[in-house]
Amino acid sequence: MRRKEIIAMLLAGGQGSRLGILSKTKAKPAVSFGGKYRIIDFPLSNCVNSGIDTVGILTQYQPLILNRHIGIGIPWDLDRPNGGVTILAPHLKGTQGEWYSGTANAIYQNISYIDSYNPEYVLIISGDHIYKMDYSKMLEFHKEKKCDATIAVLEVGWDEAKRFGIMNADESGKIYEFEEKPQNPKSNLASMGIYIFTWDKLRNNLINDNKIHNDSDFGKHIIPLMLNENQKIYAYRFNSYWKDVGTIESYWNANMELIKTLPSFNLYEDFWKIYTQTDHQTPQYISNTADVNTCIISEGCEVYGRVYNCVLGYNVVVEEGTFLKDSIIMENTVIKKNCSIERCIIDENSFVGENTKIGVGENIINKLEPKIYNTGISVIGENTFIPENITIGKNCVVSGKTTSNDYINNNLCSGESLIIKGASL
Predict the structure, then answer these.
(1) pTM score of the predicted model
(2) The dihedral of CA 213, 217, 222, 225: what is its sign?
(3) Sheet holding 317-318, edge to edge
(4) Helix (H, G, I), strand (E, B) or coil at 67
(5) Which of 30, 206, 322, 350 is deepest in the core (most CB within 10 A)?
(6) Lowest-pLDDT range of 53-67, 245-259, 294-308, 378-392
């Protein structure tokens, strides 16, 4: 097999627990974004646009939707006989299987896959961030500095720095210290979780660290190990849009930013396309009864009502008399007549009955998951059925095939949760 200069390893096995019900049945990188995409489309498209034609995707948690979406990599031109895209799930070794137990451990378990391409360099990226980045420029920097490792960093506000892994570097960019979520940060250079390693160096580090840590992690173990051994690590500064959509609020905000007149993140630049599965090509239908303002309306949608500041996925139906505002409605969802829905996320394949109201009342933090649902956004899980004449408050969570008997006087108060176990449409 022809040697590759660089291959990418894309970490896509995380649960994304802070996304709550949205990642209950799918890995975080498989969550829909921007109407027609899934989150993983962005780092995958970055690889293709950067000239990287070999990508190993490491999956673990709820991989079914992700696997179906990626397929053999056709939308990203990654269906190649020498390289292309490969799904790398945990697999049997010896007499038993072994789960990936850390970011570096996942790479360690796939050393043989990487070795099969005999690369000079390996790019490690996460599958759950929204950004556009030319990795080839980062590789040029890595080679110019003759690095053992290069870490992409982003300047964040000093008040935010304590939430990140912080890289302390000298004027040349050489990193001399790494601090994980420091209370009193010395710099504001936050790690983006994007690494380029010289493969022979990383390979040795992974093998050596695995003898000590069976849950080996880049931030906790590999980077500190390399610094302790005075291996050459440089910070590569990135100064464009990058968003971690790891919470309900940040996910909602990132979608809302797409529909601004001058968006911070432009999905439609010809020179840096975002690729995805494009099976859906049916036209939209906007009725003469509709009023649509500042929205993304995907293929196959039918809109008869009023829709303001919303993102609608494929084949969403909004019937006459319905009012939607500041909401994300994912594919194959039907919203019947005379509904009122504000500041809400509705996941795929859901149904909302007539005269239903969502997002009304006081802004009371969710009682069951206060750390997840606390900014006034109500979330409806995938395959959910909501009957007619229901009122749902703010910071609510609803999932499953519900009936009017599941609500008290057809009402779910702000901060309450209604989860029907094992139900589907």
Answers:
(1) 0.91
(2) negative
(3) 285-286, 302-303, 317-318, 334-335, 351-352, 385-386
(4) helix
(5) 30
(6) 53-67
